[in-house]
UniProtKB/TrEMBL annotation:
One of its GO terms (molecular function) is oxidoreductase activity. This is Thioredoxin domain-containing protein. Residues 1-21 form the signal peptide. Residues 8-136, 153-320 form the Thioredoxin domain. InterPro entries: AGR/TXD (IPR051099), AhpC/TSA (IPR000866), Thioredoxin-like_sf (IPR036249), Thioredoxin_CS (IPR017937), Thioredoxin_domain (IPR013766). It comes from the Bacteria. The keyword Cell inner membrane does not apply. Keywords: Redox-active center, Signal. Pfam families: AhpC-TSA (PF00578), Thioredoxin_7 (PF13899).
Length: 320
């Protein structure tokens, strides 16, 4: 009996240790080419910790900073992270970026181009600020098309997997859907045309179920504003928060309105427009509707820059 208790104790300790070891930044065993491919698929940046075995601050970062759960949640959501020995597999990287200090932190875009460089020891708060500054810099440097320029992904194109949380705080993953998926982009709860359209979409629910299809609404607004969408429309569909506009960018529906339009919205809507999204850039998605097959391939779309024009329920059903 005593032996059984001992075994049970060590088993629980092992489980606890395993759970703890999975917190913090998830460093992946990939080379840079593999990381670039994955970053493109998941619409993320690349973070590389370039270290040496003799570097004291490198060891402290690994022990004290990288395991932090809050830091891990942020980096795992926005970066593909690599842990590379500068004196072994990382010699070419060290040479390319002229690294002389350790640890060195390389923040790269999806093509492997340098976005930001840092080095030295950081505590968790400091390093979280570094990661956030990299993300903001990348967003600021990226040119978003105007409404006249944005074209949207076309029929026949395949969409990379994306994940997002819905109003129930559940994770949605496109690749996990083994059925046709109808994706509807809205501008926000402040848009009366969006709310009216969402209400009308509820009439599709029985037909969607019979055709083994799922409808998902994509909103650029934060969860507290999505709650207003739910309250106004009484929808039972999943409403996903498109944090940092990643889904809109994947579908190529994101645009920057003219300054006079942004000024008009800010004047009449206040914080409901300015503070509701990931940033205050004023960017919005075209109110497009896409239907994807089981392999994430676009089989139909309704794309009209005029936010008053939406896909008809009849047209959606014809494509399912």
């Amino acid at each position: 009996m005593f032996t059984k208790i001992i075994y049970t104790f060590f088993f629980l300790v092992a489980i606890s240790f395993s759970a703890q070891s999975k917190t913090g930044i998830d460093f992946q065993a990939k080379n840079l080419d593999e990381a670039k491919k994955l970053a493109q698929q998941e619409n993320k940046l690349i973070f590389i910790d370039l270290y040496t075995t003799w570097c004291g601050p490198c060891k402290l970062m690994k022990k004290n900073t990288f395991p932090n759960p809050e830091l891990g949640e942020f980096f795992n959501k926005n970066f593909i992270s690599l842990y590379i020995d500068a004196e072994k597999e990382g010699t070419e990287l060290a040479k390319k970026f002229k690294i002389v200090n350790y640890p060195s932190f390389l923040f790269l875009d999806q093509n492997g181009e340098l976005v930001q460089y840092e080095y030295g020891y950081y505590n968790t708060t400091q390093f979280l600020n570094v990661g956030q500054s990299v993300l903001k810099k990348k967003s600021a440097n990226k040119e978003t098309p105007t409404l006249d320029e944005v074209k949207g992904k076309m029929v026949g194109e395949t969409i990379s997997n994306f994940t997002a949380k819905d109003q129930f705080n559940k994770n949605f993953s496109l690749s996990a859907e083994k059925k046709k998926t109808v994706l509807v982009f809205i501008r926000g709860q402040w848009c009366p045309y969006c709310n009216k359209y969402i209400e009308s979409l509820q009439n599709l629910a029985p037909e969607l179920q019979s055709k083994n299809a799922r409808l998902v609404i994509i909103s650029p607004e934060k969860p507290e504003f999505i709650e207003k969408t739910i309250s106004k429309t009484k929808t039972s569909y999943s409403v996903l928060y498109d944090e940092n506009y990643k889904i809109a960018e994947l579908f190529d529906v994101l645009y920057t309105p003219e300054k006079k339009t942004i000024d008009f919205y800010e004047k009449h809507l206040g914080d409901d427009f300015k503070k509701s999204r990931s940033d205050e850039s004023g960017r919005l998605p075209v109110s497009a509707t896409y239907i994807l097959d089981e392999n994430q391939k676009i089989i139909w779309r309704h794309f009209n820059p005029d936010y008053k024009e939406r896909a008809s329920l009849e047209d959606i059903l014809k494509q399912l």
